[in-house]
């Protein structure tokens, strides 16, 4: 029993330098994937976030909800279409996206955090002009064909974030939970990629860290081994030479943009690992890939 107690004390002392480092700092977390579906991982995530708040870190959560949106669209008989990994969002789909993300998923996360001892409030980009957006213009270029302009419908990109609103909440002891729905100056609603929103929020807040939870170990090399750390140049090379594939490319680009806007480090971590947030922030090894300006 005493050996166990001594071991627990050593763990706490080893984490002290990291706790001191992040005390009073803002950490933006993109929550999604398997960590949102597995009950044990959901509980672990909530406890990790609440612990961060209690030791003086200001967590800000931005969540996804693609599978939940897809399930509801299927139930309503609305067919889903994707281009370059993004959901084509017509008016009927936008209604479902907003209903699911803002009305259901957001409140489930708020409830989850509050049940585990936190004080959380849910927001969408419409609240207090939190996320101003514009229509995403996508042009697909190919070597053997002229550029293709892709109309994704009501898919947007963030252009401004009301950082003061978020700071008012965090300074009051509240954990903000943000649904990735934005609005333009005319009041039109847009569906926005959650990684992009998390990156924009981290930039606006001058966050110390941006953390993206994924369903893979992190960025993998050509042999499938985890790359534990990479700088801006190495991240760019990984995209150019094909080391980063599929959905990892926009995640890396999101991290790179955040770093170039003042975020100290970005992390792409395995959300399937229990307590992944605490392991990444408060241990030397971590559980994913950290991206920094230079090594």
Average of the residue pLDDT scores: 92
Uncertain segments are none
How many strand segments? 16
The largest sheet, given as strand count, sense and whether it forms a barrel, is: 8 strands, mixed
Described by the principal axes of the CA atoms, the overall outline is globular
Q: Distance between the terminal alpha carbons, to the nearest Å?
A: 42 Å
Determine the number of helices (DSSP H or I, runs of at least 4 residues): 9
* Residue fraction in strands: 25-35%
- Strand line-up in the sheet with most strands: 5-10-2-1-13-15-16-14
What's the order of the H and E elements? HEHEHEEHEEEEEHEEEHEEHHEHE
What does the model show?
The chain has 295 residues and is α/β, with parallel strands linked by helices. The protein has helices spanning 2-22, 39-54, 66-75, 91-115, 163-171, 194-205, 232-240, 248-260, 276-282; strands at 26-31, 58-63, 82-83, 86-87, 120-124, 131-135, 138-142, 145-150, 155-161, 175-179, 181-183, 189-192, 209-214, 229-231, 265-270, 288-292. It contains nine helices and 16 strands. An eight-stranded mixed sheet has the order 5-10-2-1-13-15-16-14, sandwiched between helices. Strand 7 (138-142) and strand 8 form a beta hairpin. Helix 3 (66-75) packs across helix 4, helix 6 (194-205) runs parallel beside helix 8 (248-260) and helix 7 runs antiparallel to helix 8 (248-260). 41% of the residues are buried.
Helix/strand layout:
Blueprint: H1 2-22, E1 26-31, H2 39-54, E2 58-63, H3 66-75, E3 82-83, E4 86-87, H4 91-115, E5 120-124, E6 131-135, E7 138-142, E8 145-150, E9 155-161, H5 163-171, E10 175-179, E11 181-183, E12 189-192, H6 194-205, E13 209-214, E14 229-231, H7 232-240, H8 248-260, E15 265-270, H9 276-282, E16 288-292
Parallel strand pairs: 1-2, 1-13, 2-10, 5-10, 9-12, 13-15, 14-16
Antiparallel strand pairs: 3-4, 6-9, 7-8, 11-12, 15-16
